């Protein structure tokens, strides 16, 4: 695609010897690449690809970030049909396919898994499984002009005995057992023979397989079907899409951005057993909560010794302060990166609430009244905001746009944090003074069960596959690992002194605890909870936020008034 398609002023900007002018051109290209004119969008994307090799680090990072926002995306990235009763003819799940017009143009679908089929109509990807074997561990790949995205699909054919309650819960979350094939019009299906048994494969082989399979349907509908022998091992699963890499203040030069020739949307970030600190950023007074926007462009830091939220641009390292009505404590970001939610309280009995912030305009939209001492709030898989009310032993759930909670759930004292298993439709809270983890049914907003854990559980995180919850306990310097299906606990397992926050890497292979008294981050094996390394950060670290692409993580250092930037994946 020729650059001549692009506006003259944009061509002038990106060819300028002045870095700031080229950055302006990158912004223009990003806007054009997301537009409806596909020819111009393709030209803009080609120009962005060239600019990822720019001599200026800030220009190359900005171009990489803009380019990755043109990629195709799927939500959710995992579908689990759970345990299916014998004799079930088919089960169905719907997945949203998102991205700018160019990403979705001429999209095709490829499927790997016995009895698995998929059909794309507009932005809806319908996945159907006709059980042929005792298990399913497959994938559905949607490929377009701007890369590809993958949905991992799992399921199991049960025995004649009654299906367990946990399996039914998983099935109800993702399965719609009614399907009308005629409603989707005619289709052409390409069937490939079953592949021979092989070892678990990486991205290069999977890309080759996808390239070999092209299936097209009529009127914008794509179908795919592939058989696979029962002895074949499942292929590797694609991780979250890459986002941005920050420019950070360091005593040594910041590491250069290494750009792979692999398509950006197909690139996968593997978490490191030994992360490294690559820089620090000065923020407000006594930072506590930290969160990274899902698009990776912004980090939000709640400074609890002021009434300021620090907004950090990861591409330029610029920090913008936003003054709030009350003292910010913790922060969460909506799944589309457009809104930010900040829990606030000045003292135990004063100033409680949640600030709702327009992320684009960087202004406060409104304040929500909450119970006493709202703590580490989270955005659920349904987009609702879950606010643990530390001082009152309950969790309040707010829908988008609501001023009052749509649910008020009683849990043991005192809830500190919330994690989610979307497949199981379960939420989990770490309850500090009760030494319990509460298990909540997200369909009914009722307490299902509690799990005893070590003393003073401060924080909880659920693995990306939804199957493990890791709970960190402040007084015992340990973590406990909970199976989210069986609710069986493993642990306690030792971590650093004064551990008070935990988070998973997006690939699930590692987890991180923030050890306030030790001034370290403890890196754990994401499956077993065993320590793989420790990393020294600033004084009195409080919380950690991990970027969705898994490349960087950000740690709030309470006594240094900084955030440490860690390279946690590559």
What does this molecule look like?
With 570 residues, this protein is mainly beta. It has three domains: 66 residues, Leucine-rich Repeat Variant (Alpha Horseshoe), CATH 1.25.10; 154 residues, Immunoglobulins (Immunoglobulin-like), CATH 2.60.40.10; 306 residues, YVTN repeat-like/Quinoprotein amine dehydrogenase (Methylamine Dehydrogenase, Chain H, 7 Propeller), CATH 2.130.10. 13% of the residues lie in helices and 41% in strands. The protein is built from seven helices and 38 strands. The strands form nine sheets. Strands 1-3-6-5-10-9 form a six-stranded mixed sheet, with no helix packed on it. Strand 14 and strand 15 form a beta hairpin. Helix 3 runs antiparallel to helix 4. It is globular and about 65 Å long. The two termini are 31 Å apart. About 19% of the residues have low confidence.
Features:
mainly beta, globular, 570 residues, Methylamine Dehydrogenase, Chain H, transmembrane helix, Host-pathogen_enzymatic-act, Immunoglobulin-like, single chain, Leucine-rich Repeat Variant, membrane, YVTN family beta-propeller protein, six-stranded mixed sheet, 3 domains, 7 helices, WD40/YVTN_repeat-like_dom_sf, four-stranded mixed sheet
Number of domains: 3
* Percent range of helical residues: 10-25%
Strand order of the largest sheet: 1-3-6-5-10-9
Average predicted confidence as pLDDT? 79
Low-confidence stretches: 160-267
Rough shape?
globular
Pfam families: Lactonase
Transmembrane segments: 204-226
Organism: Paractinoplanes tereljensis
Protein name: YVTN family beta-propeller protein
